[in-house]
Amino acid sequence: MDTRILHKGEVFEQVYINEPSVDLRIIQEAGSRVRIHVLNIPTAEPVCRNTDVSNKITVEQAGEGCETEIYALAYLHGSEQVSTETHVKHAIGGGTSNQVIKFVLDEQSQGRFVGDLKISPDAQKTEAHQTNRNLLLSDEAEMRTQPQLEIYADDVQATHGASTGQLDESALFYMQQRGIAKQKAR
Question: What is the Cα–Cα distance from 129 to 98, expressed in whole angstroms?
């Protein structure tokens, strides 16, 4: 596990592309900012090479006025499997967090998202959002999602949500009528 402590006002920005796994823990002090992007996308080589990819990001806002942004995208095919876990804890108030996690799954690929967002009693004036959107491109693809939101403070703005769906058949038909092959339209 890579552990980092961000001191007052520090900024940490990182992009992870097709890493075998990401295991990161960040503790934020007052006024620090975090922006993380995790991408598992197709390349000439399979993303997972017949192994599971497990991404785990844990962030604790331990000071006032922290900002946290976590973005993840996985585009999987074949028998690839990716699991993404996010754990964001607002221990002190006045901070913001935004998590946007997206999966696109084709063939027999499998995705998993577990998102844990906690707002402690001392985290008044917190704004926190967690979004998970998933698109299944085949009947064999599988997605498991578990967004969690725990609020123990009164004066907060917080949202969480998840959706999983398939391509709209009428949109595919529309593209095919304009000469776009079905595979390309997907």
Answer: 5
**Residues 6 or more apart in contact with residue 179 via CB below 8 angstroms:** none
E runs forming strands in 31-169: 33-40, 52-61, 67-76, 81-90, 96-105, 110-119, 126-136, 142-151, 156-166
Q: Give, rounded to a whole angstrom, the gap between the first and last alpha carbons of the chain.
A: 37
Integer Cα distance of 116 and 146 in angstroms? 8
* Per-residue pLDDT tens digits for 35-53: 999 999 876 555 544 458 9
Q: What is the dihedral of CA 50, 18, 85, 152, to 10 degrees?
A: -170
Alpha-helical (H) ranges within the chain are 169-177, 182-185
Chain segment 58-96, per-residue pLDDT in tens: 999 999 999 999 999 999 989 999 999 999 999 999 999
